[in-house]
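User: Just a sanity check before I run the rest of the batch. Below are the structure tokens for the first item. I only need the designed sequence back.
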């Protein structure tokens, strides 16, 4: 897709962090972007900021990736408004970090339901739209999807799952002309896990870097598919 103007994207968990950074990059290319959040206000506030650029159009949608019907309705809203779906970014995620002794059943379920099942629901809901446009599916995994660490049982399990799911789905989807990539970032300067980004995070990957990566994927000749991308800070603190 050399010209992204008026193409359409749906980004889950796009009201802040990585999802918002990707939305900013796509809007700058003239794309129309829907961002979802569990909070309608958060989604609307983020969309209002994105619309200040005066390039592509942004809308906010309240949706919960843990609920398939909710995600399906979000996709339907996008297609009804803009006539199609060219890019789906499964970004929504949560993180609970504790030893297996301290990890609660509720924390485990929320992590798996959001980070892994939510990715499946998002792709399942958007599949017909992506097949119709021969579009692109991008999941946001993590280096935690290949490197395990102490207190990471739930998060590791979810992100290992996202990496494996997307790679297997890629083999299914490419037969329909749909490309799929999983991006696996290391340390990113975001609000994830109640972190407040500051100048101390200057060494980390920035959200605009990941936004540029998605734009580059969209511009790449469709004969070539970077199916899994590991990305890390080049000079860690």
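Assistant: Here's the designed sequence for the first item:
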């Amino acid at each position: 897709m050399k010209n992204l103007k008026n193409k359409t994207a749906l980004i889950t968990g796009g009201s802040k962090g990585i999802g918002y950074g990707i939305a900013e990059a796509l809007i700058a290319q003239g794309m129309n972007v829907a961002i979802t959040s569990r909070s309608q206000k958060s989604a609307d506030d983020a969309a209002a900021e994105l619309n200040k650029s005066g390039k592509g159009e942004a809308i906010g949608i309240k949706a919960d990736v843990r609920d398939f019907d909710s995600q399906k309705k979000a996709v339907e809203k996008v297609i009804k408004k803009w006539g199609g779906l060219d890019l789906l970014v499964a970004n929504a995620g949560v993180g609970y970090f504790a030893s297996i002794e301290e990890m609660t059943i509720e924390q485990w379920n929320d992590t798996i339901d959001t980070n892994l099942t939510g990715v499946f629901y998002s792709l399942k809901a958007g599949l017909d739209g992506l097949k119709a446009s021969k579009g692109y599916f991008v999941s946001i995994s993590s280096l935690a999807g290949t490197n395990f660490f102490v207190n990471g049982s739930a998060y590791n399990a979810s992100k290992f799952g996202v990496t494996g799911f997307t790679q297997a789905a890629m083999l299914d989807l490419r037969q329909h002309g749909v490309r799929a990539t999983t991006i696996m970032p290391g340390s990113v300067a975001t609000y994830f896990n109640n972190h407040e980004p500051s100048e101390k995070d200057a060494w980390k990957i920035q959200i605009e870097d990941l936004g540029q990566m998605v734009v580059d994927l969209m511009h790449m000749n469709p004969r070539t598919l970077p199916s899994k991308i590991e990305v890390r800070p080049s000079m860690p603190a």
